[in-house]
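Sharing a chain and its predicted structure for anyone who wants a worked example. Both blocks are below, sequence first, tokens second.
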Amino acid sequence: MLGLTDAVTVWTGESGAPVRFVWEGRRWLVTGRPQRWVSRRPWWQESPRVPRGVGRGAVEREMWQVEATALDSDDTAKLQLSFDGVQRRWFAVPPTS
């Protein structure tokens, strides 16, 4: 299971790819080309009932690997952003060492 952190505010481009976001109180600009994939989620562990009409969002989670630069410094980060279709929210997966 993914180790999701608090919700992240994400702005996307026309293709749906993240272009900037706020993570841990800092503003970030996506500088590399985001890589997208879909991850299966253990929906049966997260919610005993899935709302009617949710469909694929209950089983799949959209994932994006991004490289970004902080707007308040020269800090860079590589992390995964996850869009939860059931909650209609974005989450960050912390980088691993």
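Comments welcome. DSSP finds one helix and seven strands in the chain.
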